[in-house]
Amino acid sequence: MIWQLHPHAPYGPIALAATLQVDVCSPNVFIQEQSLGIHYNKGFDLLDFVKNKDVFQYENGFVKVPTLPGLGLEIDEEKVKGGIRPGTALDQPPSGGTTTEPWPVVIVGVI
Predict the structure, then answer these.
(1) pLDDT at 107
(2) What is the model's pTM?
(3) Contact at 8 Å (CB) between 19 and 111?
(4) What are phi and psi for residue 81, nearest 5 degrees?
(5) E strands within the chain?
(6) What residues contact residue 45 under an 8 Å CB cut-off, 6+ apart?
(7) CA spacing 20 to 30 A to 60: which of 4, 32, 37, 97?
(8) Buried/exposed code over 3-37 (b: 16+ C-beta within 10 A; e: otherwise)
(9) What is the CA radius of gyration of the chain?
(10) Is the distance from CB of 30 to CB of 45 less than 8 angstroms?
């Protein structure tokens, strides 16, 4: 049996950049899921919180791995702060918290 990786990273640019790093060092990656322009990105999209919006360029079904230091992203921190509004995924406290307690904003997915 041949095992293949099918990373699922629809949760934002950091999750996608991180899973792309896993992809390039894994010989058995079959497909990389992502959420650029997908229907459930209501109110914001994958690149809305990134300054370098050309970071994920797709061509013929392939994407280049970001080359800047770290994960290759320039996060627009002001947009992240401004993106926390009612009705978005960013306005929910982490599991077990309440909306009256301060909590850190984290825009990442699980690999």
Answers:
(1) 38
(2) 0.69
(3) yes
(4) -60, -40
(5) 58-59, 62-63
(6) 35, 36, 37
(7) 4
(8) eeeebebebbbbbbbbbbbebeeeeebeebebbee
(9) 15
(10) no
Q: What is the per-residue pLDDT across 54-111, written as a single tens digit (0 to 9) for each?
A: 998 888 888 888 889 999 999 998 888 776 666 555 545 545 545 454 444 433 333 3
- ∠ CA 61-43-7, nearest 5°, is 35
Please give the single-letter amino acid code of residue 71: L
Determine the length of the chain.
Answer: 111
Residues 6+ apart with CB under 8 A from 55: 13, 17, 47, 66, 68, 72, 73
**pLDDT in the model for residue 84:** 65
Residue 1: other Cβ atoms inside 10 A: 2
Which pair of structure tokens corresponds to residue 59?
Answer: 């061509």
pLDDT at 89: 55
Identity of residue 29: V
CA 5 to CA 31: how far, in whole Å? 7
